[in-house]
Amino acid sequence: MALVEVRNLTKIFDMSESAFGSRHAGEVRAVDDVSLDIEPGETLGLVGESGSGKSTLGRLILRLIEPTGGAIRFGGNDLLGASGSELRRHRRDMQIIFQDPFGSLDPRFRVEDVIAEPLIIHDGLSREARRQRVTELLRAVGLDESALRRYPHEFSGGQRQRIGIARALALRPKFIVADEPVSALDVSVGAQIVNLLRQLQRQFGLTYLFISHSMPVVRYLSNRIAVMYRGKIVEVGSTAQITGRPQHAYTRSLLEATPEIATANL
């Protein structure tokens, strides 16, 4: 059974009035009747150009935003019909790694508190037990306990993303949405993060939805690839099929337009 099942998922944003009060005509179908499955232990790469709806789909699956219609099941459970307490329980198993390692970490908190926040909310561990868990997580992402008392601004972009990954792992989730986690980093640092995600997947038995606009990175990390265009999934297949024998014209255009990143550099 698939870990994540999405059926006919739709998100329509009303554009009739902007945040500044000016009026616009019509609606935007950011996600348009999307159906897909994500199997336990796999990485499903979700690729498409900016504005295609990839990040919106990832947030819908986690119910960080609410869909206009459709169905989402996680581990066989109906997420859209879940009560507050049920959804809180499921949130332990579903986490997100954000694109921006600078904006996603609260600058007022020390690293220990940033990573420990989910443990405080969900686990009720003692302070000593939390610190031990946070230290273990830092080591898992390639940092040491000297980071505990420092603030996010004291770290590089790649190190901040490692801290964000540690926070996502705090509750031992089963499923992680990685939303363009290397797009704000230079190629060499991004390659290190991609390899870290691969290592952590094996270590913790994780399932990923890996969102990116870069076909070479998605190809390197993913078992299967879903191609998204204007809110729709236009093609899904194994990595070999999508990159070697693409069926949709948009998929072919992505492969032709994306600069190659040699996997040897990853």
Report strand %: 15-25%
Overall number of strands:
10
| Unreliable parts | 261-266
Distance between the termini: 32 Å
Task: Please state the average pLDDT score.
Answer: 90
Structural class: alpha/beta
What would your notes on this structure say?
- The chain is globular.
- The chain has helices spanning 54-61, 84-91, 111-122, 127-140, 157-169, 187-204, 215-221, 239-244, 249-257, and strands spanning 4-14, 27-38, 43-47, 69-74, 77-78, 94-97, 175-179, 207-212, 224-229, 232-238.
- The strands form 2 sheets. The chain has a 6-stranded mixed sheet with strand order 6-7-8-3-9-10, with helices on both faces. It has a 4-stranded antiparallel sheet with strand order 2-1-4-5.
- 38% of the residues are buried.
- The protein is of the alpha/beta class and 266 residues long.
- The chain contains 9 helices and 10 strands.
- Helix 3 (111-122) crosses helix 4 (127-140), helix 3 packs parallel to helix 5 (157-169) and helix 4 (127-140) crosses helix 5 (157-169).
Task: Give a quick rundown of the structure.
With 266 residues, the chain is α/β, with parallel strands linked by helices. The chain is built from nine helices and ten strands. The chain has a six-stranded mixed sheet with strand order 6-7-8-3-9-10, sandwiched between helices. Strands 2-1-4-5 form a four-stranded antiparallel sheet.
